[in-house]
Amino acid sequence: EDEEDEEEGSDSSSPPVSYQMKPPPEGCCTTDGFCQAGKDLRLVSISNEQIEVPSGFLLVGAKSPNLPDHLLVCAVDKRFLPDDNGRNALLGFSGNCVGCGKKGFCYFTEFSNHINLKLTTQPKKQKHLKYYLVRNAQGSLTKGSVICWKG
């Protein structure tokens, strides 16, 4: 028998379980598009807000499977993002919540839980970070170039 293909506690007839580190603490906001502190992270809602971005961090847009028409705004340490050729990104993650200001997320899984980004898979999960965000001539935050993830 091929036991390696079986995942703990699941059978082939059950739907895939979302990959989550743990359920959010009691009293946390679990609404798609909002962080656990209840702050709106959708680009359409905060595009005209002044967002404090620490030195070495960039604003990027994350694509939520549950909100296909929205990007969630995230502050990510640029060392963990690929260059224009999809290379030279450090392994790991460092990010901050632009909604409530919580800093120092060292794991993308922890960060995605905080921003209620419901992931269905563990591998390559940072590929949910889809776009660089830039300010246009009017000063609004808009979708910029695609983040080039390779491999």
What does this structure look like?
- The protein has one domain.
- The protein is 7% helix and 19% strand.
- The longest helix is centred in the last third of the chain and has 7 residues.
- The N terminus is likely disordered.
- It is built from 2 helices and 5 strands.
- The protein has 151 residues and is mainly beta.
- 26% of the residues are buried.
Chart the SSEs and their pairings.
Blueprint (H helix, E strand, L loop, with lengths): L42 H4 L10 E7 L7 E7 L17 E2 L11 H7 L14 E7 L5 E6 L5
Antiparallel strand pairs: 1-2, 1-4, 2-3, 4-5
For this structure, the quaternary state is single chain
Q: For the CA atoms, what is the radius of gyration? A: 16 Å
Q: How are helices and strands ordered from N to C?
A: HEEEHEE
The helix count comes to 2
Q: How many independent structural domains?
A: 1
Give the spatial strand order of the biggest sheet. Answer: 3-2-1-4-5
| Main sheet attributes: strand count, strand direction, barrel closure | 5 strands, antiparallel
Cα separation of the termini: 32 Å
% residues in beta strands: 15-25%
InterPro entries: GREB1, GREB1_N
Biased composition (Acidic residues): 1-10
Protein name: GREB1 protein
Pfam families: GREB1_N
